[in-house]
Amino acid sequence: MKLKTKLTLIISVMLVMIFTVILVFVYIQSSERIKEGEITFVETLYESIRANQMTEVENLKIAVMGIANNPEVQTLFYKKDRAGLTQLLLPVYESIQTQVAQFQFHLPDSTSFLRLHKLEKYGDSLKDFRFTVNDANDKKETVAGIEEGVAGYGLT
To answer: pTM for this one?
Structure first.
């Protein structure tokens, strides 16, 4: 083989190797940037969802405290007057039921006292699966969070 042919072949192989190395480097760098972008996107999305959830929890707390601090509600609940609470609060629940799926009262032992969304069901224990209810009853303070119940996930 002639020297010119050998040199052309060697230079061609070297160029292919250089281009291959450059392409692999560019591919790796691009993949890392895409991965970093995806991670940033997911982290931003997570933070946005988390902030939205916390806003919902705070709004729910404000609404619940308004009801819980109502003297008439307190008196009816103290007397265990299910019919009185229903009469007073069912219209409130009906006006917000598209935003609030469940509206419940629980006794200190985590027994369901009144479900405005399901009036016929009460007296059952929630102790085994409604841990925020148990926590609130044990601590005797407002507890809020996202929890899975029988009917699905909800803000409590």
So the answer is: 0.64
